[in-house]
Design goal:
The chain is of the alpha/beta class. Helices cover about 35% and strands about 15% of the residues. Strands 4, 5, 6, 7, 8, 9, 10, 11, 12 and 13 form a ten-stranded mixed beta sheet that branches. Strands 1-2-3 form a three-stranded antiparallel beta sheet, sandwiched between helices. Bound molecules: D-glucarate (GKR) and magnesium ion (MG). It catalyses: D-glucarate = 5-dehydro-4-deoxy-D-glucarate + H2O.
Length: about 425
Protein backbone atom coordinates (compact mmCIF):
# COMPACT_ATOMS: atom_id res chain seq x y z
CA UNK A 1 0.00 0.00 0.00
CA UNK A 2 1.37 3.44 -0.89
CA UNK A 3 2.00 5.73 2.06
CA UNK A 4 -1.15 7.76 2.74
CA UNK A 5 -0.53 11.44 3.23
CA UNK A 6 -3.91 12.61 4.49
CA UNK A 7 -4.09 14.20 7.91
CA UNK A 8 -6.36 11.35 9.01
CA UNK A 9 -3.61 8.81 8.63
CA UNK A 10 -2.19 7.12 11.69
CA UNK A 11 -0.15 4.02 12.27
CA UNK A 12 -0.20 1.51 15.08
CA UNK A 13 2.40 2.03 17.78
CA UNK A 14 1.33 -0.43 20.43
CA UNK A 15 -1.47 -2.74 21.47
CA UNK A 16 -2.74 -3.84 24.86
CA UNK A 17 -4.77 -7.02 25.19
CA UNK A 18 -6.44 -7.21 28.60
CA UNK A 19 -8.21 -10.41 29.60
CA UNK A 20 -11.26 -9.88 31.80
CA UNK A 21 -13.77 -12.09 33.57
CA UNK A 22 -17.41 -11.07 33.98
CA UNK A 23 -20.00 -12.67 36.20
CA UNK A 24 -22.25 -14.98 34.25
CA UNK A 25 -25.45 -16.64 35.48
CA UNK A 26 -25.98 -20.43 35.32
CA UNK A 27 -27.53 -20.49 31.85
CA UNK A 28 -28.24 -23.99 30.56
CA UNK A 29 -27.56 -25.24 27.05
CA UNK A 30 -27.04 -28.47 25.16
CA UNK A 31 -23.43 -28.81 26.36
CA UNK A 32 -24.01 -28.02 30.04
CA UNK A 33 -24.13 -24.80 32.02
CA UNK A 34 -22.31 -21.50 31.92
CA UNK A 35 -19.44 -21.11 34.38
CA UNK A 36 -19.64 -18.44 37.09
CA UNK A 37 -17.47 -16.17 34.94
CA UNK A 38 -17.27 -15.64 31.20
CA UNK A 39 -13.97 -14.59 29.65
CA UNK A 40 -13.50 -11.68 27.27
CA UNK A 41 -10.49 -9.70 26.07
CA UNK A 42 -10.43 -5.94 25.59
CA UNK A 43 -8.06 -4.61 22.94
CA UNK A 44 -6.67 -1.09 23.02
CA UNK A 45 -4.82 -0.26 19.80
CA UNK A 46 -2.76 2.94 20.06
CA UNK A 47 -1.46 5.07 17.20
CA UNK A 48 1.20 7.68 16.54
CA UNK A 49 -1.63 10.23 16.31
CA UNK A 50 -2.54 9.60 19.95
CA UNK A 51 -5.76 7.75 19.12
CA UNK A 52 -6.90 4.56 20.85
CA UNK A 53 -9.08 2.02 19.04
CA UNK A 54 -11.18 -0.44 21.01
CA UNK A 55 -12.28 -3.98 20.39
CA UNK A 56 -13.66 -6.92 22.35
CA UNK A 57 -12.84 -10.56 21.68
CA UNK A 58 -13.02 -13.99 23.30
CA UNK A 59 -10.76 -14.19 26.34
CA UNK A 60 -9.76 -17.85 26.56
CA UNK A 61 -6.07 -18.82 26.64
CA UNK A 62 -5.69 -19.93 22.99
CA UNK A 63 -7.39 -16.72 21.80
CA UNK A 64 -5.15 -14.59 24.03
CA UNK A 65 -2.09 -16.35 22.68
CA UNK A 66 -3.14 -15.59 19.10
CA UNK A 67 -4.01 -11.98 19.91
CA UNK A 68 -0.64 -11.44 21.54
CA UNK A 69 1.28 -13.10 18.71
CA UNK A 70 -0.55 -11.03 16.12
CA UNK A 71 -0.14 -7.81 18.17
CA UNK A 72 3.61 -8.16 17.95
CA UNK A 73 3.38 -8.03 14.14
CA UNK A 74 1.16 -4.97 13.78
CA UNK A 75 3.41 -2.05 14.73
CA UNK A 76 3.59 0.47 11.90
CA UNK A 77 0.41 -0.72 10.18
CA UNK A 78 -1.78 2.09 8.84
CA UNK A 79 -5.23 2.21 10.43
CA UNK A 80 -6.62 2.12 6.84
CA UNK A 81 -4.73 -0.96 5.70
CA UNK A 82 -7.27 -3.70 6.41
CA UNK A 83 -5.85 -5.98 3.71
CA UNK A 84 -2.43 -5.51 5.29
CA UNK A 85 -3.99 -6.54 8.61
CA UNK A 86 -5.21 -9.81 7.06
CA UNK A 87 -1.77 -10.53 5.63
CA UNK A 88 0.15 -9.70 8.78
CA UNK A 89 -2.13 -11.75 11.03
CA UNK A 90 -1.98 -14.77 8.71
CA UNK A 91 1.83 -14.62 8.61
CA UNK A 92 2.16 -14.01 12.36
CA UNK A 93 -0.01 -16.97 13.22
CA UNK A 94 1.68 -19.26 10.70
CA UNK A 95 0.73 -22.84 11.40
CA UNK A 96 -1.65 -21.96 14.21
CA UNK A 97 -3.50 -24.81 15.91
CA UNK A 98 -7.13 -25.30 14.87
CA UNK A 99 -9.28 -23.91 17.65
CA UNK A 100 -12.65 -22.42 18.47
CA UNK A 101 -13.46 -20.77 21.81
CA UNK A 102 -16.97 -22.22 21.81
CA UNK A 103 -18.24 -25.69 21.05
CA UNK A 104 -21.48 -24.18 19.79
CA UNK A 105 -20.23 -22.46 16.65
CA UNK A 106 -19.13 -25.30 14.43
CA UNK A 107 -15.94 -27.32 14.26
CA UNK A 108 -12.61 -25.69 15.15
CA UNK A 109 -10.37 -24.87 12.21
CA UNK A 110 -7.21 -22.97 11.33
CA UNK A 111 -9.22 -20.62 9.12
CA UNK A 112 -11.50 -19.82 12.04
CA UNK A 113 -8.61 -19.22 14.41
CA UNK A 114 -7.14 -16.71 11.93
CA UNK A 115 -10.54 -15.17 11.14
CA UNK A 116 -11.36 -14.50 14.78
CA UNK A 117 -7.93 -12.91 15.32
CA UNK A 118 -8.32 -10.66 12.28
CA UNK A 119 -11.78 -9.68 13.47
CA UNK A 120 -10.54 -8.57 16.88
CA UNK A 121 -8.05 -6.11 15.34
CA UNK A 122 -10.23 -5.06 12.42
CA UNK A 123 -12.92 -3.73 14.79
CA UNK A 124 -10.28 -1.66 16.59
CA UNK A 125 -9.03 -0.31 13.24
CA UNK A 126 -12.55 0.72 12.28
CA UNK A 127 -12.90 2.42 15.66
CA UNK A 128 -9.64 4.26 14.91
CA UNK A 129 -10.74 5.20 11.39
CA UNK A 130 -13.90 6.65 12.89
CA UNK A 131 -12.01 8.55 15.56
CA UNK A 132 -9.59 9.89 12.92
CA UNK A 133 -12.39 11.13 10.65
CA UNK A 134 -15.30 11.83 13.00
CA UNK A 135 -17.34 9.16 11.23
CA UNK A 136 -19.26 6.34 12.85
CA UNK A 137 -18.26 2.73 12.06
CA UNK A 138 -21.61 2.17 10.31
CA UNK A 139 -20.82 5.12 8.00
CA UNK A 140 -17.43 3.62 7.19
CA UNK A 141 -19.25 0.38 6.38
CA UNK A 142 -21.36 2.07 3.74
CA UNK A 143 -23.83 4.05 5.78
CA UNK A 144 -26.65 3.18 8.13
CA UNK A 145 -29.74 1.70 6.51
CA UNK A 146 -31.34 1.73 9.97
CA UNK A 147 -30.53 3.85 13.01
CA UNK A 148 -32.13 1.37 15.40
CA UNK A 149 -31.16 -2.28 15.29
CA UNK A 150 -33.79 -4.71 16.63
CA UNK A 151 -32.54 -7.38 19.02
CA UNK A 152 -34.31 -10.50 20.21
CA UNK A 153 -34.81 -11.46 23.88
CA UNK A 154 -32.50 -14.39 24.51
CA UNK A 155 -34.35 -16.73 26.87
CA UNK A 156 -32.44 -19.43 28.74
CA UNK A 157 -33.40 -22.24 31.04
CA UNK A 158 -31.44 -21.51 34.15
CA UNK A 159 -30.86 -22.49 37.73
CA UNK A 160 -31.68 -20.00 40.50
CA UNK A 161 -27.98 -19.58 41.14
CA UNK A 162 -24.65 -21.28 40.69
CA UNK A 163 -24.38 -24.29 43.02
CA UNK A 164 -23.27 -23.20 46.47
CA UNK A 165 -23.93 -19.51 45.71
CA UNK A 166 -26.88 -17.31 46.60
CA UNK A 167 -29.67 -17.17 43.97
CA UNK A 168 -28.95 -14.47 41.39
CA UNK A 169 -31.26 -11.61 40.52
CA UNK A 170 -32.65 -13.38 37.42
CA UNK A 171 -34.25 -16.32 39.24
CA UNK A 172 -34.90 -19.88 38.19
CA UNK A 173 -36.44 -20.88 34.84
CA UNK A 174 -36.82 -24.61 34.40
CA UNK A 175 -40.31 -25.05 32.95
CA UNK A 176 -42.79 -23.24 30.68
CA UNK A 177 -44.01 -20.96 33.49
CA UNK A 178 -40.45 -19.99 34.38
CA UNK A 179 -39.64 -19.24 30.73
CA UNK A 180 -42.77 -17.13 30.28
CA UNK A 181 -41.96 -15.22 33.47
CA UNK A 182 -38.42 -14.62 32.22
CA UNK A 183 -39.73 -13.45 28.86
CA UNK A 184 -42.22 -11.14 30.56
CA UNK A 185 -39.46 -9.59 32.62
CA UNK A 186 -37.21 -9.04 29.58
CA UNK A 187 -40.03 -7.70 27.40
CA UNK A 188 -41.23 -5.35 30.16
CA UNK A 189 -37.75 -4.10 30.89
CA UNK A 190 -36.25 -3.91 27.37
CA UNK A 191 -39.29 -3.88 25.09
CA UNK A 192 -38.11 -6.85 23.01
CA UNK A 193 -40.32 -7.57 20.03
CA UNK A 194 -39.15 -11.14 19.37
CA UNK A 195 -38.11 -14.07 21.56
CA UNK A 196 -35.49 -16.80 21.19
CA UNK A 197 -35.39 -19.79 23.53
CA UNK A 198 -32.11 -21.63 23.98
CA UNK A 199 -33.24 -25.25 23.87
CA UNK A 200 -31.61 -28.65 23.70
CA UNK A 201 -31.73 -28.72 27.49
CA UNK A 202 -34.87 -30.69 28.36
CA UNK A 203 -36.73 -33.40 26.44
CA UNK A 204 -38.17 -31.75 23.30
CA UNK A 205 -41.79 -32.16 24.47
CA UNK A 206 -41.02 -29.84 27.41
CA UNK A 207 -39.44 -27.29 25.10
CA UNK A 208 -42.39 -27.49 22.71
CA UNK A 209 -44.63 -26.80 25.72
CA UNK A 210 -42.49 -23.78 26.59
CA UNK A 211 -42.79 -22.45 23.04
CA UNK A 212 -46.56 -22.96 23.12
CA UNK A 213 -46.75 -21.14 26.46
CA UNK A 214 -44.74 -18.27 24.95
CA UNK A 215 -47.06 -18.21 21.93
CA UNK A 216 -50.09 -17.88 24.26
CA UNK A 217 -48.45 -15.21 26.40
CA UNK A 218 -46.97 -13.22 23.50
CA UNK A 219 -49.28 -13.77 20.52
CA UNK A 220 -47.59 -11.17 18.31
CA UNK A 221 -43.92 -11.94 19.03
CA UNK A 222 -41.91 -13.96 16.48
CA UNK A 223 -40.47 -17.00 18.30
CA UNK A 224 -37.28 -19.01 17.73
CA UNK A 225 -35.96 -22.19 19.29
CA UNK A 226 -32.29 -23.22 19.23
CA UNK A 227 -31.35 -26.67 20.61
CA UNK A 228 -27.75 -26.41 19.31
CA UNK A 229 -27.86 -29.69 17.38
CA UNK A 230 -28.90 -31.72 20.39
CA UNK A 231 -31.62 -33.57 18.47
CA UNK A 232 -31.41 -36.44 16.03
CA UNK A 233 -32.86 -35.94 12.58
CA UNK A 234 -35.93 -37.96 13.64
CA UNK A 235 -36.50 -35.85 16.75
CA UNK A 236 -36.02 -32.71 14.67
CA UNK A 237 -38.73 -33.90 12.25
CA UNK A 238 -41.11 -34.53 15.13
CA UNK A 239 -40.54 -31.09 16.65
CA UNK A 240 -40.65 -29.31 13.28
CA UNK A 241 -44.01 -30.93 12.56
CA UNK A 242 -45.43 -29.62 15.83
CA UNK A 243 -43.96 -26.15 15.63
CA UNK A 244 -44.49 -25.45 11.96
CA UNK A 245 -46.39 -22.18 11.73
CA UNK A 246 -45.49 -21.36 15.34
CA UNK A 247 -41.79 -20.51 15.00
CA UNK A 248 -40.20 -17.77 12.94
CA UNK A 249 -37.29 -20.19 12.54
CA UNK A 250 -35.82 -23.31 14.09
CA UNK A 251 -32.09 -22.93 14.70
CA UNK A 252 -29.70 -25.86 14.42
CA UNK A 253 -32.06 -28.68 15.38
CA UNK A 254 -29.71 -31.38 14.05
CA UNK A 255 -25.97 -31.49 13.51
CA UNK A 256 -24.03 -30.88 10.29
CA UNK A 257 -25.04 -29.82 6.81
CA UNK A 258 -26.26 -33.31 6.02
CA UNK A 259 -28.39 -33.59 9.16
CA UNK A 260 -29.88 -30.15 8.62
CA UNK A 261 -30.60 -30.94 4.97
CA UNK A 262 -32.47 -34.09 5.98
CA UNK A 263 -34.62 -32.05 8.38
CA UNK A 264 -35.15 -29.28 5.83
CA UNK A 265 -36.31 -31.76 3.20
CA UNK A 266 -39.38 -32.67 5.26
CA UNK A 267 -40.52 -29.39 6.79
CA UNK A 268 -41.65 -25.99 5.62
CA UNK A 269 -40.34 -24.48 8.87
CA UNK A 270 -37.36 -22.23 8.03
CA UNK A 271 -34.12 -23.64 9.45
CA UNK A 272 -31.34 -21.31 10.62
CA UNK A 273 -27.76 -21.99 11.64
CA UNK A 274 -24.73 -20.72 13.44
CA UNK A 275 -23.28 -24.21 13.64
CA UNK A 276 -23.21 -25.89 10.23
CA UNK A 277 -22.35 -22.77 8.22
CA UNK A 278 -19.59 -20.96 10.07
CA UNK A 279 -16.99 -20.36 7.33
CA UNK A 280 -17.17 -19.37 3.67
CA UNK A 281 -16.19 -22.93 2.71
CA UNK A 282 -19.42 -24.21 4.30
CA UNK A 283 -21.66 -22.13 2.05
CA UNK A 284 -21.47 -24.04 -1.27
CA UNK A 285 -22.29 -27.46 0.22
CA UNK A 286 -25.01 -26.00 2.45
CA UNK A 287 -26.63 -24.23 -0.50
CA UNK A 288 -26.34 -27.33 -2.70
CA UNK A 289 -27.99 -29.47 -0.03
CA UNK A 290 -30.71 -26.91 0.79
CA UNK A 291 -29.67 -27.30 4.43
CA UNK A 292 -30.67 -23.85 5.76
CA UNK A 293 -32.72 -20.81 4.88
CA UNK A 294 -31.12 -18.38 7.34
CA UNK A 295 -27.49 -17.91 8.36
CA UNK A 296 -26.59 -16.26 11.65
CA UNK A 297 -23.54 -14.07 11.08
CA UNK A 298 -21.10 -13.23 13.86
CA UNK A 299 -18.24 -10.86 13.10
CA UNK A 300 -16.19 -12.37 15.93
CA UNK A 301 -15.65 -15.63 14.07
CA UNK A 302 -16.53 -14.83 10.44
CA UNK A 303 -13.42 -12.65 10.16
CA UNK A 304 -14.64 -9.18 11.05
CA UNK A 305 -17.02 -6.52 9.82
CA UNK A 306 -15.94 -6.59 6.17
CA UNK A 307 -16.11 -10.39 6.07
CA UNK A 308 -19.59 -10.21 7.59
CA UNK A 309 -20.66 -7.83 4.84
CA UNK A 310 -19.26 -10.28 2.29
CA UNK A 311 -21.33 -13.00 3.96
CA UNK A 312 -24.37 -10.74 3.72
CA UNK A 313 -23.79 -10.36 -0.03
CA UNK A 314 -23.45 -14.10 -0.54
CA UNK A 315 -26.63 -14.72 1.44
CA UNK A 316 -28.45 -12.18 -0.73
CA UNK A 317 -27.20 -13.87 -3.91
CA UNK A 318 -28.39 -17.29 -2.79
CA UNK A 319 -31.67 -16.08 -1.32
CA UNK A 320 -30.65 -16.93 2.24
CA UNK A 321 -31.95 -14.86 5.14
CA UNK A 322 -29.46 -13.25 7.51
CA UNK A 323 -29.61 -12.99 11.29
CA UNK A 324 -26.92 -12.44 13.93
CA UNK A 325 -25.48 -14.82 16.52
CA UNK A 326 -24.15 -13.92 19.93
CA UNK A 327 -22.07 -15.35 22.73
CA UNK A 328 -21.63 -13.76 26.13
CA UNK A 329 -20.28 -10.26 25.47
CA UNK A 330 -20.04 -6.71 26.77
CA UNK A 331 -20.69 -3.25 25.38
CA UNK A 332 -17.74 -2.95 22.98
CA UNK A 333 -18.96 -6.00 21.10
CA UNK A 334 -22.56 -4.81 21.30
CA UNK A 335 -21.47 -1.56 19.66
CA UNK A 336 -19.64 -3.41 16.87
CA UNK A 337 -22.64 -5.71 16.31
CA UNK A 338 -24.98 -2.72 16.19
CA UNK A 339 -22.88 -0.76 13.67
CA UNK A 340 -22.58 -3.83 11.45
CA UNK A 341 -26.29 -4.59 11.58
CA UNK A 342 -27.12 -0.93 10.97
CA UNK A 343 -25.08 -1.00 7.76
CA UNK A 344 -26.29 -4.38 6.45
CA UNK A 345 -29.51 -3.98 4.52
CA UNK A 346 -30.46 -7.66 4.28
CA UNK A 347 -29.96 -8.31 7.99
CA UNK A 348 -33.69 -8.23 8.50
CA UNK A 349 -34.07 -10.56 11.47
CA UNK A 350 -33.72 -9.22 15.01
CA UNK A 351 -30.18 -9.96 16.21
CA UNK A 352 -29.23 -12.13 19.19
CA UNK A 353 -27.53 -10.63 22.20
CA UNK A 354 -26.56 -12.08 25.57
CA UNK A 355 -26.13 -8.59 27.01
CA UNK A 356 -29.22 -8.70 29.22
CA UNK A 357 -27.52 -11.43 31.25
CA UNK A 358 -24.47 -9.36 32.15
CA UNK A 359 -24.53 -7.33 35.36
CA UNK A 360 -21.03 -5.95 34.79
CA UNK A 361 -19.79 -3.66 32.04
CA UNK A 362 -16.50 -2.36 30.73
CA UNK A 363 -17.71 0.77 28.95
CA UNK A 364 -18.99 4.01 30.38
CA UNK A 365 -22.78 4.01 30.73
CA UNK A 366 -25.14 5.91 28.46
CA UNK A 367 -23.81 5.28 24.96
CA UNK A 368 -25.55 2.04 24.14
CA UNK A 369 -28.53 0.15 25.54
CA UNK A 370 -31.47 -2.01 24.50
CA UNK A 371 -34.62 0.14 24.51
CA UNK A 372 -37.94 -0.71 22.89
CA UNK A 373 -36.33 -3.96 21.69
CA UNK A 374 -33.62 -2.20 19.73
CA UNK A 375 -30.22 -0.62 20.09
CA UNK A 376 -29.80 2.87 18.66
CA UNK A 377 -26.50 3.34 16.82
CA UNK A 378 -24.24 5.38 19.13
CA UNK A 379 -23.75 8.86 17.63
CA UNK A 380 -20.08 9.31 18.55
CA UNK A 381 -17.19 8.67 16.15
CA UNK A 382 -15.95 5.11 15.61
CA UNK A 383 -17.78 2.58 17.76
CA UNK A 384 -19.12 5.47 19.84
CA UNK A 385 -18.32 3.87 23.19
CA UNK A 386 -15.74 4.82 25.83
CA UNK A 387 -13.78 2.39 27.93
CA UNK A 388 -14.25 2.68 31.68
CA UNK A 389 -10.64 2.21 32.82
CA UNK A 390 -11.63 1.48 36.44
CA UNK A 391 -14.04 -1.25 35.37
CA UNK A 392 -11.41 -2.68 33.05
CA UNK A 393 -8.93 -2.89 35.93
CA UNK A 394 -11.52 -4.43 38.24
CA UNK A 395 -12.65 -7.03 35.69
CA UNK A 396 -9.02 -7.88 34.96
CA UNK A 397 -8.44 -8.44 38.69
CA UNK A 398 -11.51 -10.66 38.66
CA UNK A 399 -9.95 -12.58 35.75
CA UNK A 400 -6.72 -13.09 37.68
CA UNK A 401 -8.63 -14.28 40.75
CA UNK A 402 -11.25 -16.53 39.15
CA UNK A 403 -8.79 -19.04 37.68
CA UNK A 404 -10.99 -19.78 34.64
CA UNK A 405 -8.95 -19.78 31.44
CA UNK A 406 -11.23 -21.51 28.93
CA UNK A 407 -14.94 -21.75 28.41
CA UNK A 408 -16.11 -25.10 29.77
CA UNK A 409 -19.85 -25.76 30.15
CA UNK A 410 -19.36 -29.49 30.82
CA UNK A 411 -17.37 -29.52 34.09
CA UNK A 412 -19.78 -27.32 36.12
CA UNK A 413 -22.69 -29.47 34.91
CA UNK A 414 -20.78 -32.62 35.88
CA UNK A 415 -20.35 -31.21 39.39
CA UNK A 416 -24.14 -31.45 39.72
CA UNK A 417 -24.77 -34.47 37.45
CA UNK A 418 -21.66 -36.68 37.71
CA UNK A 419 -22.64 -38.77 34.67
CA UNK A 420 -22.91 -35.72 32.40
CA UNK A 421 -20.89 -35.97 29.19
CA UNK A 422 -22.29 -33.12 27.09
CA UNK A 423 -22.36 -35.53 24.15
CA UNK A 424 -24.82 -34.65 21.38
CA UNK A 425 -27.39 -35.49 20.11
CA UNK A 426 -28.98 -36.31 23.45
CA UNK A 427 -32.61 -36.42 22.31
O1 LIG B 1 -24.37 -18.95 25.56
O2 LIG B 1 -25.01 -20.97 26.04
C1 LIG B 1 -24.84 -20.05 25.23
C2 LIG B 1 -25.25 -20.22 23.80
O3 LIG B 1 -25.70 -21.51 23.61
C3 LIG B 1 -24.12 -19.89 22.87
O4 LIG B 1 -22.96 -20.52 23.29
C4 LIG B 1 -24.40 -20.26 21.44
O5 LIG B 1 -23.23 -20.13 20.69
O6 LIG B 1 -26.07 -18.59 21.50
C5 LIG B 1 -25.36 -19.39 20.74
C6 LIG B 1 -26.19 -20.03 19.64
O7 LIG B 1 -27.05 -19.36 19.13
O8 LIG B 1 -25.93 -21.17 19.29
MG1 LIG C 1 -27.58 -20.86 17.66
Amino acid sequence: MSTPTTRTDATITDITVTPIAVQDPPLLNSVGVHQSYALRAILQVRTDAGLVGLSEAYGDDPTLDRLNRASAALAGLSIWDLNGLNRRVAVALGEVAPDSPTELAGAPSVAKAIASTVSAFEVALYDLQGKATGLRVCDLLGGAVREEVPFSAYLFYKWAGHPGAEPDSFGEALDPDGIVAQARRLVDRYGFGSLKLKGGVFPPEEEIAAIRALRDAFPGHPLRLDPNANWTVETSHRVAEQLSGVLEYLEDPAGGIDGMAQVAARTDLPLATNMCVTTFDDIPPAVAAGAVRIVLSDHHFWGGLRASQKLAGICETFGLGLSMHSNTHLGVSLAAMTHLAAATSNLTYACDTHSVWQVEEVIEPGAIAVRDGAVRVPPGPGLGVTLDEDSLARLHEQYLRCGIRRRDDITPMRAVHPDWTGARPRF
